[in-house]
Amino acid sequence: MQKRAPLVSRETLLPFILLTICFAAWGVAANMTDPLVKVFSKIFTMSSLQSALVQFAYYGAYFCLAIPAAFINKRFSYKTGVLTGLGCAAAGAFLFYPASQTMTYGFFLLALFVLAGGLSILETSANPYVMAMGCEQSATRRLNLAQAFNPVGTNLGVFLAATLILPNLNQASAEQRASMSAAELKSVIGAELDAVMVPYVGMAFVLVVVWIAIACIKTPVNESTEQRAENIQLGASLKRLMLNRHYRFGVLAQFFNVGAQTCVWTFTIQYAMAAIGGNEVDGGQVLQYSMIVFLVSRFVMTWLMQYLYPAKLLMIMSLIAAGLCIVMTQAPNMVGVVSLVAISACLSLMFPTIYGIALEGLGEDTKLGAAGLVMAILGGAILPLFQAAIIDSWSVIVSYVVPALCFLLVAGYGLFDIKNKASRTTTANSANSAPVTVK
């Protein structure tokens, strides 16, 4: 029996560990940001649609910075991209301090944009970097292993929000805030925004430490990098990628996957409060349970991929997630809340699996292809706005039809890849069995 090659070699072990910290870092940022939609809605007395601009700024930055990240990776290296992303993310996190002092919503959106822009560069670089740390056959499993540590960050992010931000929200209603004097309202808002600022500035210091550690290690991957900007043939790469249906549909699937994930988690607190009552802290606990399920399921799904084709598992989990969303709309009680938490088990494999499947066989176009898949995170900026509009017009219960439709589209990509694989296998078998003419 042939011995299976290790997912990570001795030479790449330390860099791999440091990169998994990066995976956890953007998990902290993303899921510490999710509750901010509810937080800013309360602090600044805004509608759900207005407060959802938090996600628009955050995920919109991913869209804007992914192509520049591809240029950095192609012109220099994945390591340079990782360091650039970490530095930019740290700068954005530090901006939360002046934002808390000015007490303006726009400044917080700017800080989130800079933070997420850095994470976009980091993610565009780190994902293919991990895939390149070994043989191509195990790349998707290796990426799932690295991404399994992302939920460690998501859990930490929700924990920080639940312990440092949500308990420090003043329980005064919008009407009570409106009746306060200007000085009293300023004092209340200042204390709340200081609570928002503290965990982000703390994360900034951690990112600086990780930057120093990665800068000091040797790059373990031999990359073919272009030394002149004019050698980066963006047009040719884009044309090849656009003609590749498998990749193109993968980008669309990632768009709807990230949109669904963001919708599910962003409005978890509101759904829990509507379904079973309680306040923001109670809703934050439900979000924490979701993150724990997400964390455990990442490792379970990575193990299952040894026995089940990744696209098939993706299709099955997407269909289950869509069904759970429908249950939530029909049973807005404890059953709906349990279904909401269970969706995170389905979400756990989606991002890295779509990412790995879509990049298969791209060769020299992998770096630009990785940027396209990160740009697809734009779904997290756009789709929550639709859900927020439904919340303002109807209810948070009804709004979960949005992620349900997204999950069905993701399941469609899983089915497409299964059929595409069967077609490739048939073609390969036909070629191998064709008679050979000897001249």
Summarize the structure.
The protein has a single domain (10-218, 237-424), classed as MFS general substrate transporter like domains (Growth Hormone, Chain: A), CATH 1.20.1250.20. It is 78% helix and 0% strand. It is built from 21 helices and no strands.
Helix content: over 70%
E-strand count: 0
Number of helices: 21
Q: Give the rounded overall mean pLDDT.
A: 87
List descriptors.
MFS_trans_sf, Growth Hormone, Chain: A, transmembrane, mainly alpha, 439 residues, fucose:proton symporter activity, single chain, disordered C terminus
Secondary structure topology:
Layout: H1 10-33, H2 36-43, H3 48-51, H4 53-75, H5 78-94, H6 96-102, H7 105-131, H8 139-147, H9 150-165, H10 174-178, H11 182-215, H12 234-243, H13 245-266, H14 268-276, H15 280-304, H16 310-330, H17 334-347, H18 350-358, H19 366-375, H20 379-393, H21 401-433
Helix pairs in contact: 1-7, 1-9, 1-11, 4-5, 4-7, 4-19, 4-20, 5-7, 5-11, 6-7, 6-11, 7-8, 7-19, 8-15, 8-18, 9-11, 9-15, 13-18, 13-19, 13-20, 13-21, 14-15, 14-17, 15-17, 16-17, 16-18, 16-21
Structure write-up:
By secondary structure, the chain is mainly α. It has a single domain (10-218, 237-424), classed as Up-down Bundle (Growth Hormone, Chain: A). It is 78% helix and 0% strand. It is built from 21 helices and no strands. It has helices spanning 10-33, 36-43, 48-51, 53-75, 78-94, 96-102, 105-131, 139-147, 150-165, 174-178, 182-215, 234-243, 245-266, 268-276, 280-304, 310-330, 334-347, 350-358, 366-375, 379-393, 401-433. α5 (78-94) packs antiparallel against α7. It is globular, with a radius of gyration of 22 Å. The two termini are 38 Å apart.
